[in-house]
Design a protein that fits this description.
mainly alpha; two-stranded antiparallel sheet; 7 helices; 51% helix
Length: 155
């Protein structure tokens, strides 16, 4: 970490990029075969599925487990839909919006208008008609399968 701290300084316990050119270099698709390449879509897909797993698992948490996982649960509630959509898993994000437990937890966390923002993000990404050609995660990845139920903006 110390060696990278000049390019990725830590402020307020968060990792930052020193200069936009560093980020641009890391995500440049022409460098796809190089060691220090970051596939942003893949990162969003992985983060989205991990958030989805945390949310799914939280349904079975006892109070002690819930307390231990509080930060991860809050992050997942706030950012799961965004990561899933940016990772090409729009249908998984849309299906999540039809989970009553998720809606209740997200609304309780607040602000409530963020649910509308998540719905609009899903619709703007295609509403789940296709997942940008990516393999839809199966049960081994923590995703649940649902039959199509229309767009979330019909709520």
């Amino acid at each position: 970490v110390a060696k990278l701290s000049m390019l990725f300084p830590i402020r307020d316990r968060k990792l930052h990029v020193f200069h936009k050119s560093v980020k641009d270099w890391l995500v440049d698709s022409e460098r796809r075969d190089e060691t220090c390449y970051v596939d942003v879509d893949d990162v969003h897909e992985r983060l989205g599925m991990r958030c989805h797993d945390v949310l799914k698992d939280s349904l079975t948490f006892n109070d002690k487990q819930r307390s231990k996982m509080e930060k991860a649960l809050v992050y997942s509630l706030k950012h799961c839909v965004t990561h899933l959509c940016k990772g090409g898993l729009v249908k998984v994000a849309r299906d999540l919006m039809f989970e009553f437990e998720y809606l209740l937890e997200r609304a309780t966390l607040g602000p409530v208008h963020m649910l509308v923002k998540d719905c609009l993000r899903i619709v703007s990404c295609g509403g789940g008609g296709g997942d940008r050609g990516r393999r839809r995660p199966g049960p081994g990845h923590g995703a649940r399968c649902y039959r199509d139920r229309g767009l979330c903006c019909h709520l």
